[in-house]
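Q: Hi! First time doing this. I have a protein sequence and I read that you can turn it into a structure. Is that right? Here it is:
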Amino acid sequence: MPTRLLIIGGVAGGATAAARARRIDEHAEIILFERGEYISFANCGLPYYIGEVIKERDELLLTTPRDFKDLYNIDVRVQSEVVAIDRQNQILRVKDIRNGNICTEVYDKLILSPGAEPFIPPVEGIGSERFFYLRNVPDSDRIKSYVDTHKPNAAVIVGGGFIGLEMAENLVERGVKTTVIEMLDQVMPPLDYEMAAIIHTHLEGKGVICDLGNKVQSFSRQDGRITVVTSKGNTIPCDMVIISAGIRPESKLAKDAGLAIGDRGGIRVDATMRTDDPHIYAVGDAAEVRDFVTGLPTMTPLAGPANKQGRIAADNALGRKSVFRGTLGT
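A: Yes, that's right. Below is the predicted 3D structure, encoded as structure tokens:
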């Protein structure tokens, strides 16, 4: 009997796993479930679509469900959320988001690629149509629509990591005065300070205000604008806020199924990307893997490692030995 491989989640990890699985087993039955509308998109390009460096929205969309069917004979089901994993009987419960119907699917092997969700800091006043997060295509649609329609004068970005700095770059290109608030004394925490200092100089040369070693205390509305109050006591008026204060792995489904969860909240896997269930693998932003330098568990929410992990998980799920040697996060 052909192996029945089910994959939860698309984009870098899940979509790559599906394509790799088909390449090494032309007989396997492969079904991929994706909660959102889009199975594979250029997540690194989202800020540049907002900044109009990428002109056409369609350039963000890499592969459609029809493409997967025609090219790989893979059954892709979008707007389908897996709500429960019955490990004993190897059954998934799947909810069709469009109508609420529930169906069940049996698996021989299962690959989890649930991704991560934005961390929402517990700050007074968060929440309105002018607060934005950037994780997927609909998020980029909302931000771009707001900038196009309302022509904001000023924006505050909370967090100076990858997404925060890319959004700062593109908002400035759109003519929006932009302030980045970062609680550390540097942007890009993975870098040494000497390297980050070069970025500080570059950002300031482009007109970005870097408010370092500071935190947001509260948000309030005054005269139709948002007022940001910081821990240093200063206030910053703006028209929109981008929250890029980190992410949290979406590991609830795995936890509810009784899979081992690490101290950082990610799904524990071994070097083959296998969980503590011999039939289940996990990849991408939600998987807790080995830091190549320290040897300690870590999570690296980047597309490159997720792609590699997806290929390795597919190999092992279909009987081909493959090992993930760790991540540097570069």
